[in-house]
Amino acid sequence: MSPDQLNAVFGALADPTRRAILARLTDGDRTVAELSAPFAVSQPAISRHLKVLERAGLVSRSRRATARLSHLEAEPLREATTWLATYQEYWDESYERLDALLAALQASRTDRPSAGGE
Amino acid sequence: MAKTQITAEPGVPFIDITREFDAPRDLILRAHTDPDLIVQWMGPSRFAMTVERWEARDGGGWRYVQRDADGNEWGFHGVFHGPASLDGLTQTFEFEGAPGHISLGTLTFEERNGRTVTHVHSVYQSVEDRDATLASGMADGMNAGYDRLDDLVARLTPVG
């Protein structure tokens, strides 16, 4: 995923209404009217949010008769969270090694009580 | 122990990394400034780490190389600015695979009741550089193998 695409995905996710829209779409495709119903937000506002999600590749649109449906595209979301997770893993693993090192250093200290504190 | 907290907001060239440790600041400082200790924790254990120099003082240089099981090597180097102290330290960071893209890292140590919270604030030259760091070689399928961690703990035998 390119830096621009990642920026678009994280920018899209940085809004609670858009996150809620994505959560609703996990249950299946929905029209704009169906998506607006739970929110105190107008249909044009929901449409604007859907455009942002579509530009980020998180939602695709299709037609069923006269209805325009939004569909959750999970792959960009999965890629973005995988990408974040591996950087997270780098730091988690380094700091877990540091935890062990610090524990060993403290166990070997003879110049202060073992129960921490000043 | 709480997981490392990483914040990388879209559209800004920063990464913030926060972590709490069950240790006082003086040991945290030692772990970040003593090259013999750096080599024991920095980076995943699947990399062999060689610290060429780690001069944690104003104007001091640092360089380390990480190598994987296939013999691929990644070099990193930079300079320390200002003193390294119980309050923290500041260093520049350059990945030799992408020369000219330099970041500035400010590390602070905050101690409370014998525990220390470390906070790294990294500033990149652009959002693109920041994003490239997040998507870098750190992203090629790491397994958190703890076999070597057990070895390390076993080797650091407590005294007395």
Description of the molecule:
The complex is a heterodimer of chains A (118) and B (160). Chain A has five helices and three strands, in the order H-H-E-H-H-E-E-H. By secondary structure, chain A is mainly alpha-helical. A three-stranded antiparallel sheet of chain A has the order 1-3-2. In chain A, a hairpin with a 2-residue loop joins strand 2 and strand 3. The longest helix of chain A has 34 residues. With 160 residues, chain B is an alpha+beta fold. Chain B has a single domain, classed as START domain (Alpha-D-Glucose-1,6-Bisphosphate, Chain A, domain 4). Chain B contains four helices and eight strands; from the N terminus they run ββααββββββαα. The relative contact order of chain B is 0.19. The C terminus of chain B is likely disordered. The chains are: A mainly alpha (118), B alpha+beta (160). Chains A and B meet through helix 1 and helix 5 of A and strand 2, helix 1, helix 3 and helix 4 of B.
